[in-house]
Amino acid sequence: MKKNSGLIGVALLTGFLTACGGGGGSDKATETTPPNVPSDTISPELSEEFVPFEDQNIIDKIKDLISGETSNGTDYNVALGHMIGEVFADYPVGRTGRIVQIYNLGNNSVRYPNLLCSEVKTAGNIQTLTLKADRENCIVLDKTYRKGSVITKSVSGDNTTLTFSNVRYGSNLDFSLTDDYLISGSITYTSSQSPAGKSVSYFVDKLEFQRIAERQDAPAGSTAYDALSKEYLQVRNYVYSLVDDYGSGSNGVRTLSSAGMVIGQPYMAGFRYSFNFNTTAPFKMDETLMNAYKHLPSEGTLQITDGFKQKIEVKQTTPGALSATVYLNGKELSTLPWSTIIGSK
């Protein structure tokens, strides 16, 4: 990929698609993650193959309509794929995938610590995971945590907050991986359920995730490209909400909405981008049978404003359509299959 440190803000993200779960009249226990998201620890990484726009004509159409600096086609394509990946990752459920993955990573590490080299201290409703004083490293599940890493879990009513402080880890399963992952910031998860329905949400005030060479000091986080960071993600004022209204019989509705700001640097890229996104019309999925919802939305619009102030919209213009329609500054560009947007897993 050609390096270009001047790019900060090319865009196309999109925000939806969800799989089955809860339904009319269901009293299923509240889940700790949205449906179909694995509960076990996941590496917060995106597939290098997650690039949705392989058609160069679509990229050219977007670039032709943008007034401002743009990168070459390869960089632009990678940025688009990375942004979409931050919402969907590899699983067919509408949420910022990496946020859920990082939440699972911290939650499971606290739940299943390695007591030989780490410890969890409990004070009231607060649990804190640290390495033992005499240990430089500790393998917890499939991650090798470094000395100084602290994960705090606090529970208050329906809210669970995970805070990552100086968390540095590598993979214990991928022996070819010589990089470290760094996480700082907090994620608050909220769940509730009643006879009328259930809801889950994630909120992030500010969270940073980056990949660097092993034992290297963390580069300063910002919108500016930093060559020392092999990959970078910063999420600000992010909220994700998935609400099931059970209704009566099989006429329930699932509603998805999300908003926030993301700063990203794809893996081994030479640029950073930034964008704000918001579901100006929440995505809605109708219930088919009890405990099952349609996988394709009946309606919904996600609007993205990139660093160049370009407005991109991804709309479900036809209920149940297999593809979303993509608009840039009010002009229709193309359609994009949901199967491409969400990946195959």
From TrEMBL:
The keyword Signal applies. Residues 1-19 form the signal peptide. It comes from the Bacteria. The keyword Signal applies. Keywords: Signal. This is Lipoprotein.
